[in-house]
Design goal:
Helices cover 24% and strands 26% of the residues. α3 packs parallel to α5. The protein has an eight-stranded parallel β-barrel with strand order 3-4-7-8-9-10-11-12, surrounded by six helices. Strands 2-15-19-20-26-22-23 form a seven-stranded antiparallel sheet, covered by helices on one side. Strands 16-1-21-25-24 form a five-stranded mixed sheet, with no helix packed on it. By secondary structure, the protein is an alpha/beta fold. The two termini are 31 Å apart. The longest helix is centred in the middle third of the chain and has 21 residues. The chain binds alpha-L-arabinofuranose (AHR).
Length: 497
């Protein structure tokens, strides 16, 4: 097949906020205990953090990590996780039916963020707790000194405030599985009051209103409209969550689901703009896609009820999952004018790109690589590529372009990258990239992942699925020609010479 992409500087979609490459750590399964924190592990540092995990998080170049949940946060008392560890209570976690030992809490996570070169996106409990508890946490973490809560932090050994800038107002509050689930109007009210008081406590913070728990939620649309109608002027972002899975073995439809994702994003933008118009507001609401990934391999895995950190949601990702994750990243970048934050859910062990053995080794899942490539090379601005390629129908979708692509341009570093997935199961694509006004830019590298069976996976000591370097594509009269293998992830890097 032949395909063509046309690129020009004027095709700018928007600046890429680095937080679009965020991720997520929840007190769930072995994400914290046995994941980022394992004091007995041979690589653990003086704080009990696994340095082999930190090393891979750094490679992913994750600028922000959402914490401590997820469903967990809706029953969490942040006070249980601060102060001397020996005084911290063990609690039942009703979200995941486990026991939370509270050996790791807010201050430990903030320390870990510093070591992992990332920042925290903190979620507050608006399920079982109040707006006042939320604003008290802001005072504990962000107020310098001279109040009971700031001085409490100091007495715990943290004299400087953490200055956490981004705060989630609860989690998936529309879901019946959520502790303290609410109607849109109930949630709109508590979100408004919490956001208002949290910002009065620290006027440098930003807040994220919970959108629907997915596009399939029965109240999707109305939930966003009603809650935003109440809280619009106080909040800065509305959240989106979406996971995909190949439930019926239909690979072509699995890969085509980014069409649905595209529509989901578009609809949420329209709802935000409708509320803006209705209110004659000057403020444009941006989006925080703070949970997204492939998730379905581990749905029914057994575990011991009320145990501490049992393995949960430990999807082992295969090659086709990596292509879906790559396609989802491209879709998010296509909307970077409105999506300012996105979190790959999650980061370690729980539906994650990094997998550890408790007491043992570590490996990179297949989905690690598309994330690593976009996060490291997809900076600057996103350019809307005019794509000309054949389309096909799948069982669930019609007119699916074989090529999913985005280009990013980093003027400061004089570099440009084209990311693309060839969704054809059996056909090569000869891709012409026509550069309209990028004088001096030449291809320097073509990285790809291809040639694997869709079910191939990685494991400890078995880094089977991984990227490889191809011949550098030719350039002739401003047209770069690259060969994209069937069913492949591709990163074509250009530099100014
Ligand atoms: O990421 C796993 C879970 O998925 C989160 O706890 C919840 O917010 C979502 O339903």
């Amino acid at each position: 097949m032949k395909a063509k992409i046309t690129l020009a500087r004027e095709f700018k979609i928007g600046d890429i906020d680095k937080r679009i490459y965020g991720s997520f750590i929840e007190h769930l399964g072995r994400a914290v205990y046995g994941g980022i924190y394992e004091p007995e592990h041979e690589t653990a540092d003086e704080d009990g953090f696994r340095t082999d995990v930190i090393e891979l998080v750094r490679q992913l170049n994750v600028p922000i990590v959402r914490y401590p949940g997820g469903n967990f946060v809706s029953g969490y008392n942040w006070e249980d996780g601060v102060g001397p560890v020996e005084n911290r209570p063990k609690r039942l976690d009703l979200a995941w039916k486990t026991t939370e030992p509270n050996a790791f809490g807010t201050n430990e996570f903030m320390k870990w963020c510093k070591k992992a070169d990332t920042e925290c996106m903190m979620a507050v409990n608006l399920g079982t707790r109040s707006a006042d508890d939320a604003r008290r946490l802001v005072e504990y973490t962000n107020h310098k000194s001279g109040t009971a809560l700031a001085d409490l932090r100091k007495s715990h050994g943290y004299s400087d405030p953490w200055n956490i800038k981004l705060w989630c107002l609860g989690n998936e509050m529309d879901g019946r599985w959520q502790m303290g689930a609410k109607s849109a109007k109930e949630y709109g009210r508590i979100a408004l009051e919490a956001s208002k008081m949290m910002k009065w406590t620290d006027d440098t913070i930003e807040t994220v209103l919970c959108g629907s728990s997915s596009r399939n939620s029965p109240t999707f649309g109305e939930w966003e409209a009603q809650s935003l109608d109440i809280a619009y002027e106080s909040v800065d972002y509305v959240s989106l969550h979406q996971y995909y899975g190949n439930h019926d073995g239909d690979t072509e439809s699995f890969l085509a689901q980014t069409l649905e994702l595209e529509e989901f994003i578009h609809t949420v933008i329209c709802i935000c703009d409708y509320i803006k118009a209705k209110k004659r507001s000057k403020k444009t609401m941006n989006l925080s896609f703070d949970e997204w990934n492939v998730w379905y391999h581990s749905n029914d895995d057994p575990y011991e009820r009320w145990s501490v950190a049992p393995p949960r949601l430990e999807d082992i990702y295969n090659f086709e999952d990596a292509l879906v994750v790559g396609s989802m990243l491209i879709t998010l970048l296509r909307h970077c004018d409105r999506i300012k934050i996105a979190c790959l859910a999650q980061l370690v062990n729980v539906i994650a790109p990094i997998f550890t053995q408790t007491g043992g080794g570590i490996f990179k899942q297949t989905i690690f690589y598309p994330f690593e490539h976009t996060s490291n090379y997809g900076r600057g601005v996103a350019l809307n590529p005019i794509i000309n390629c054949p389309k096909h129908d799948t069982k669930r979708f019609t007119d699916v372009p074989y090529l999913e692509a985005i280009a990013t341009f980093d003027e400061e570093n004089e570099s440009m990258t084209v990311f693309c997935v060839n969704k054809s199961l059996d056909e090569n694509a000869v891709l012409d990239i026509s550069l309209m006004d990028f004088e001096g830019y030449v291809p320097v590298e073509h990285i790809s992942m291809d040639g694997y069976d869709k079910n191939d996976t990685n494991g400890i000591g078995n880094p089977y699925v991984k990227p490889h370097i191809n011949e550098i594509p030719q350039i002739d009269d401003g047209v770069v020609t690259a060969n994209l293998k069937p069913f492949s992830w591709n990163v074509i890097r250009l530099k100014k010479m």
